[in-house]
Amino acid sequence: MSIHATHIARPVTVSRVMLKVLAALLPGIAVSVYCFGPGVLVQLLLATVTALAAEAAVLRLRQRPVAPALADLSAVVTAWLLALSMPPLGAWWMIVLATLFAIVLGKQLYGGLGNNPFNPAMVGFAVMIVSFPAQMAAWGTPLAALDAAAQLQWIFTHTLPAGSSLDAISSATPLDVLKTGLLQGGQDASQLLQQPRFGHWGNAGGEWVALAWALGGLWLWQQKLIPWRTPLAMLAGVLAVSLPLWLWQPAQYASPLFHLLNGATLLAAGFIVTDPVSGSTTPLGRLIFGFLVGVLVVVIRVFGGFPDAVAFAVLIMNMAVPFIDQTTQPRVFGRKGGRHA
Amino acid sequence: MSWLYDFHGGIHPPQHKDAATGSPIQALPLPPQLHIALAQSVGNAARPTVAVGQHVRKGETLAEPDGRLSAAVHAPTSGTITAIGPHPFAHPSGLPVDTVTLQPDGLDEWQPRQPLDWQQADAATLRQHLQAMGVVGLGGAVFPTHLKLAAGKLATLVVNGAECEPFISCDDLLMRERAAGIVDGIRIAAHALQAGEVLIGIEDNKPQAIAAMQAACAGTAYRVVSIPTKYPSGGAKQLIRILTGIEVPHGIRATDLGVQCLNVGTLYAIAHAVLHGEPLLSRIVTVTGAVARAANYEVAIGTPLAWLLQQAGMSDPNADVIMGGPMMGITLPDLAAGLPKAGNCLIAKNAALFPPRPAEQACIRCGDCASVCPAELQPMDLFWFAKSRQFGKAQERHLFDCIECGACSYVCPSQIPLVDYYRFAKSEIWAAERDKKSASLARQRHEFRQFRIERDKSEKAARVAARAAEQAAKLANQTASPVPAPAATGMDDAKKAAIAAALARAAAQKEAKPLSEQHTSGLDDAKQAAIQAAMARAAARKAAAEAAKAGDAANPDSTATATPAQTGMDDAKRAAIEAAMARAAARKAAAEAAKAGDAANPDSTATATPAQTGMDDAKRAAIEAAMARAAARKAVAEAKKDAAS
Amino acid sequence: MTTLLYALLVMVALALLLGAILGYASVRFKVDADPLVDKIDDILPQTQCGQCGHPGCRPYAEAIASGEEDINKCPPGGEDGIRKLAELLGVDFKPFDAGAAQPKPKAVALIDEATCIGCTLCIQACPVDAILGSAKQMHTIIASECTGCELCLPPCPVDCIRMIPHGTDLTNWKWRYPTIPIKAVKP
Question: What is the mean pLDDT of residues B17-28?
Answer without folding.
Answer: 92
